Amino acid sequence: MSTTLITESLANFLQIYILIILVRVLLTWFQTAGWAQQGMAFLSPITDPYLNIFRSFIPPLGGLDISPILAILLLQVIAGAL
Fold first, then answer.
1. Model-level pTM?
2. pLDDT of 13
3. How far apart are CA 41 and CA 19, in angstroms?
């Protein structure tokens, strides 16, 4: 019973983390807005360590950073396996 609780809690945490990454990506579209910069300043320390893992071996393609896509896909696979 406790393993079910731990598994479900971890899966829920991963879903919340995916949502946080999505919000951070959407905020990059509004970099000139002051409210977006505040949001990014808050979310960057939470998301960047994980995203930097993917950025280290996948460079931006034509100015487009695809590391969040791969990071989210991996999290979804792990959450689905749980």
1. 0.85
2. 94
3. 16
Tell me how far apart the alpha carbons of residues 68 and 73 are, in angstroms, rounded to a whole number: 8
β-pair partners for 61: 64
Cα distance between residue 22 and residue 81, in whole Å:
21
Among 14, 36, 13, 24, which Cα is nearest to 67's? 24
Whether residue 70 contacts residue 54, with contact meaning beta carbons closer than 8 Å, is answered with yes
Range of the domain at 59: 2-81
- Across 3-20, average pLDDT: 92
Query: Would you state the structure tokens that stand for residue 70, as one six-digit string?
Result: 């791969």
Residue pLDDT, tens place only, 12-31: 999 999 999 999 999 988 87
Token representation of residue 67: 């590391």
Total domains, the chain: 1
DSSP character at residue 30: G
